Amino acid sequence: MSHRLCSHVRDMLPRYLCGNLADKDGIREHLAECSSCRDRWNRYRWEAASSSTAYTELRTFLGEDFVPYLDSSATLAEDWREQGPPDAEGLAQFFRQSAAYLYNLVIWQASGNRPDYAAAGIPLLDVARARTVVDFGCGVGNDTLPLLDAGFDVTACDYDSPSTDFLRWRLRRRGQDGIPVVEPAQTYGMPCPDALWIIDTLDHLPDIEVALSHLLAGVRVVVCEDLAVRRGVTRKGFHRSLDPDEVARIFERHGLLPASRDPASPVMGWLR
Questions:
Q1: Residues spanned by the domain of 15
Q2: If you ran DSSP here, which 8-state letter would residue 176 be given?
Q3: How many CA atoms lie within 13 A of 49 on its CB side?
Q4: Is 157 a domain residue?
Q5: What is the mean pLDDT of residues 235-258?
Q6: Given 3-state DSSP classes, what are the helix, strand and coil percentages for the chain, each rounded to the nearest 5?
Q7: Is residue 167 within 8 Å of residue 159, measured between CB atoms?
Q8: Enclosing H/E stretch for 18
């Protein structure tokens, strides 16, 4: 790896953090191959996150178990390689047990590297006049909390895990411990919400129709991330490659049609 290329990539880290580079894929590929730049990128994100409320909350929540500068993406990729390709239940267990994923979700958001999905997606909820929302794949609550702050009636949904333990802790600190945090299977027995909010989750699902058909049949709007954007810099195997056209066909079979969008928006939406 040339020193000049490494210097160039490191100079680009501030802009890469904010997602405003034209050649994001080129930077991503370099970070996947160059351990030195990868280490620099990990430290850069941690330091960008260190002044945030979420970082302070994570450190308080974990106490003496807190591991600063953990490269959670690399840890997740290694854990995945050691486990081997799982079946659907094995995938669920992977997320139920992963402390590295807790770090990954917090540092991604707290560093400013995660797009502001809530700001981009809430106007779609307003267009659909949605008030009740299932945040499917809620993780640590990166979107659950701003949706609650915006006045929506939110049910958080994810596997019981270190991530949802942290979310419940955050809700208690905010006096919102009555907010439901449910497992995916529990969504089958609940009234259908107005909106399905599903960010950073579709590409984890072994079968989208099996996991979501009961919700897709009744919701008025679906909000997900821009499915054309490539993911990750460590090639974690639990992100499936999605065909955006196939996802659109699944949604359309349930009466949900693509909403108009700004090509620069980090979200996509479907409306009934």
A1: 1-49
A2: -
A3: 27
A4: yes
A5: 86
A6: 55, 10, 35
A7: no
A8: none
> Is residue 34 domain-shared with residue 125, that is, in the same domain?
no
Each residue's pLDDT tens digit, 119-178: 999 999 999 999 999 999 999 999 999 999 999 999 999 999 999 999 999 999 999 999
Q: Classify 45 as helix, strand or coil.
A: helix
Q: What are phi and psi of 190, to 5 degrees?
A: -110, 155
Angle 61-62-68 (CA atoms, 0-180°, nearest 5)? 120
CB 119 within 8 Å of CB 181: no
Number of structural domains the chain divides into: 2
DSSP symbols for 71-99: -HHHHHHHHHHHH-S--HHHHHHHHHH-H
User: In the listed set 33, 49, 65, which residue is the last one of a domain according to the structure?
Assistant: 49
Burial of 188 (0-12, 13-18, 19+ CB in 10 A): exposed
**pLDDT band at residue 1 under the 50/70/90 scheme:** very low
Quick: pLDDT tens for 50-89: 999 999 999 999 999 999 999 999 999 888 888 776 777 8
More confident residue, 91 or 195: 195
- pLDDT at site 23: 72
pLDDT at residue 142, rounded to an integer: 98
Overall pTM surpassing 0.90 (yes/no): yes
In a domain, 128, yes or no: yes
Alpha helices in 87-186 (DSSP H): 88-97, 99-110, 117-127, 144-149, 162-173
- 155 and 242 part of one domain: yes
Burial of residue 178 (number of CB atoms within 10 Å: 0-12, 13-18, 19+): exposed
- Do 266 and 119 contact (CB within 8 A), yes or no? no
